Amino acid sequence: MNGDYPRWRYWGVSSCACLWAGLLVLAPFALARQREKTGPAIPSADGTAQPGSVTLAHGNHWRIPEVTRPPRFEEYLQGKPREAELEVSDFRQFDPGDGEPATLETRAYLSYDAKNLYVVFVCRDEPGKVRARLAKREDIDTDEQVILYLDTFHDQRRAYVFAANPLGIQLDGIYTEGQGVDYSYDAVWHTEGKLTRDGFAVLISIPFRSIRFSGDTVQNWGIALARVIPRKNETIYAPYVTHRIEGLVNQMATLEGLENIASGRNLQVIPYGIFTHSRFLDPTAANGPDFNDISVGRAGLDAKAVFKDALTLDVTLNPDFSQVESDEPQVTINQRFEVFFPEKRPFFLENAGYFQTFNSLVFTRRIADPQFGLRLTGKLGPWSLGVFGIDDRSPCAAVPGPCANLSPSDPLTKSRAGIGVVRVQHDIGKQSYIGALVTSRDFGSSSNRVYSLDTRLKLSTNWVFEGQAVQSFTRNLDASKLNGPAYWALLRHTGRHLLYFGRYLDRSADFRADIGFIPRTDVRLTEHFLDYSWRPRQGQILAYGPSAQVLLSWNHAGQLTDWITRLGFGVTLPGQTTLEVRRNEAFELFQNLGFRKHFTEFLAATQWLKWLQASADYSQGNGVNYFPGAGLLPAGALNPFLSHTRNATVGLSFRPWPKLHFDQTYLYSQLETRTGSTPSGFLSGTAIFNNHILRSKVNYQFTRELSARAIVDYNGLLSNPQLFVADRSKRLSADFLVTYLLHPGTAIYVGYTDRYGNVDIDPAVPGGLRTTNVLGTSTSRQFFVKLSYLFRY
Q1: Are 621 and 602 in contact (CB under 8 A)?
Q2: pLDDT (tens digit, 9 = 90+) per residue, 572-613?
Q3: DSSP 138
Q4: Sign (positive/negative) of CA torsion 140, 143, 148, 151?
């Protein structure tokens, strides 16, 4: 074991321990001093405000009145008369008690005018118990929330999601049945929020130009209102939404009374500019490894036009593909298959759900550096449409397969790849559809075409079937061809107590999807999952029950390649607290060697305290060393062998003040030799590798628009090169960012990143780089300023 490692481990652990100890010591004082700025008590909803016209919501048909002026927030805080509104008060529990009355009073008031839809939530709560923090936009997952769902096409398939915490911090997304919520959607809308002596109130204003709907004179939309109370594990809805029925959008109320509304002239233009200055270590420099300094300025334009209120055309020139937020840490060593990192770049995020299918055939991180592109998305009657075309100036960066036999100096590597995707979907009945997807990628003389048909069928109140058939046609640069199919089928049951799904997956060895995320081919797989929960009506235990999972897979030669059985038991307690234990037994065939595996896993998470969120996951058992080193064998590398493994993840989110948010994440992965499969020449218990990943993240929110964030990442791999192919390495990076975000599209970012590695320039060693024992060399530094501004016409 390298002698310097304990010093670094001690530094990392002790510094974090000291930091946490200091924060925990200060927390009681901070919490004692913290006094939320609250307004007057909200007048009781007994008619004292004497609004001009009140319509009470009953059943599943709500009629909303039109007003001549926008409602004012102070009218609801001070009990002043209002013009007209629809009042909704019959909120019922979705969790923990399905259909039971809400434990806290919630009322919502709805109205609209020619330009906006208005919703005001007036929420009662005990003084001092409301969870509300001044945070970055969309960072409200641990706060109380009020939520507006709008199914503007009333097709029971997709809905806009507009949520806000009690201070008016926004979160928006698009909910799609079968996919969940896509929070990458960003819209321009208005919120106001205020804490009061007996709760809080939030005003939501949605401009019609920010959403899409049909061009009909009279509109009927699906609508649902919700409130989330984390400390009670309580989610309430109006109208009544139940676990006993699969789906959410199909349970919404019908909003009637919207007439003569339109998004109007709707053209958006977002120019952006970014300047970066970088200094980095170039190991391939002509005279040996050296440092390069580069200053780059870049500008571009994103434009959006809306047709018939429902179709959106996006055109981009030199698009903004700068990634302001870094990827979350993941363990990437000793992974048999590619690790998934989600897309974060703005152009690809919007309306990404239109291109999502059960097999991930569109994974836009495969597109490295485009210069121009266009996208058309929307809905006309029962038809949904998604089309985009784009180029890639770095075709070998994210899809190395077609470039496998090319040298870096080959002129073809600087050619562009042309990429196109077409998605069409047609509604069938209620909550069912049939769809088609075509993807195409051309690079030089190579090409990849993928054709897909898929469907989602709502069989009954609780049962859903999903299926997909895909065919790929690939031509490589050497003129060889690969053609192969892939199939997917899933049957799912959703209920208050019983959850079940069974799926079948089949991908041929020659199936390729160059712009998809397909980590494994030559597989036939079936999987079944069953979960049953008892939900006591009284006591501290809100839910508990067992779960079971079985998976079997074969290759197309008929060999059994994997089987997994998993048994688990989980408990849900108040304060968003969950406990679970799992036992896994498995078999894996790798390089024609069979490995019998098992491990036990413990999981826990809680938001019991207002200022602290915590989660932990620990597992131990045995697993395969997929990439063994040279060992002590004269003949060369070892075969893969079974090893003892331990893995742990700890996450802490600490908020001692409403404006300060501190996150700490620690990931640990260990592999060591074990009795019964220890390679010759090694003792049982010999370390193969230890991988420590540590992230500390601090965000201070000065105002709703202005924030400062710092991230420190450490990744240390202590490996035994005789047993594992990777060299020992240490990486430390510091990332600072100041953000002024007025609203989506209009923002200023100023950032600085510095990365250190345990290497040093030494002309005396082969390659010119020497591995050291300390993090003494800055391998990459970057300063950047990015500006963008949204013009709406």
Answers
A1: no
A2: 999 999 999 999 999 999 988 899 999 999 999 999 888 899
A3: T
A4: positive
d(CA 521, CA 561): 12
Q: Which long-range contacts (CB under 8 A, 24 or more apart) does 610-613 make?
A: 610/129, 610/131, 610/231, 611/27, 611/31, 611/654, 611/655, 611/656, 612/652, 612/653, 612/654, 612/655, 613/142, 613/651, 613/652, 613/653
Cβ partners under 8 Å of residue 317, min gap 6: 300, 301, 371, 372
Question: How many helices and strands (H and E) does the chain possess?
Answer: 4, 42
Alpha-carbon distance of 789 to 670, in angstroms, equals 47
As a whole number of angstroms, the distance between CA 120 and CA 138 comes to 19
C-alpha–C-alpha distance, residues 433 and 436, integer Å:
10
Pairwise CA distance, residues 101 & 720, whole Å: 60
Low-confidence stretches of the chain (pLDDT beneath 50): 1-37, 45-48, 50, 634-635
**Residues 387, 391, 396: CA angle, nearest 5 degrees:** 125
Tell how strand 498-507 and strand 523-532 pair up: antiparallel
| Distance from C-alpha of 141 to C-alpha of 697, rounded to nearest angstrom | 16
pTM, rounded to two decimals: 0.84
User: Can you read off the two tokens belonging to residue 577?
Assistant: 């607290």
Tell me the residue type at 426: H
Nearest 5°: CA angle at 268, between 264 and 271?
A: 165
d(CA 526, CA 551): 6
d(CA 258, CA 65): 8
